[in-house]
Design a protein that fits this description.
The chain is mainly alpha-helical. Helices cover about 65% and strands about 5% of the residues.
């Protein structure tokens, strides 16, 4: 599992660089042909493990439920978030991975509710959820790259 956490931190570093180095107007722009933006994809990646790991294990979220509800599957961008929310997501990019690793190593994920993901990958353990999350984050990194290109082309 150490490799899974290492991959997550590396991906989160890439996402953090997008967050820090993308002009604000590009971060929140929804290009023609898309239904979300770079910001939403980054925030979505932060909240998804809260659902996959904590909710499916019957545990409380480690971040605010309002953030989970704002960026979980099935949501869409809703204006420009406050600087406070942006700062939280930036911090949570790394702190949530650290917390999941700490909780995993402490054996907190004892029970797990099986779940079928949208791409029809069944999850039946915390290890499955962590492995799927790496795949999920890769999908959203790809979406961000496509959004970045579309924003540039449509400028």
């Amino acid at each position: 599992m150490e490799k899974i956490f290492d991959i997550l931190v590396k991906n989160r570093t890439i996402l953090h660089n997008f967050l820090e180095n993308t002009p604000e107007e590009d971060l929140f722009k929804i290009p023609v042909g898309f239904n979300n933006n770079i910001w939403w994809n980054i925030a979505h990646v932060v909240v998804t493990p809260q659902l996959l790991m904590y909710k499916l294990s019957g545990l409380d979220f480690t971040i605010e439920e309002e953030l989970v509800n704002a960026y979980k599957k099935g949501t869409f961008p809703n204006g420009i978030p406050s600087q406070e929310v942006r700062d939280k997501i930036s911090k949570y990019l790394f702190s949530t991975v650290e917390q999941i690793q700490k909780d995993y190593e402490a054996g907190k994920f004892k029970t797990f509710q099986e779940y079928m993901t949208t791409p029809k990958i069944g999850l039946s353990s915390p290890e499955d959820a962590l492995s799927f999350n790496v795949f999920h984050e890769g999908l959203h990194l790809g979406a961000i790259l496509a959004l970045k290109k579309a924003v540039k082309e449509q400028a």
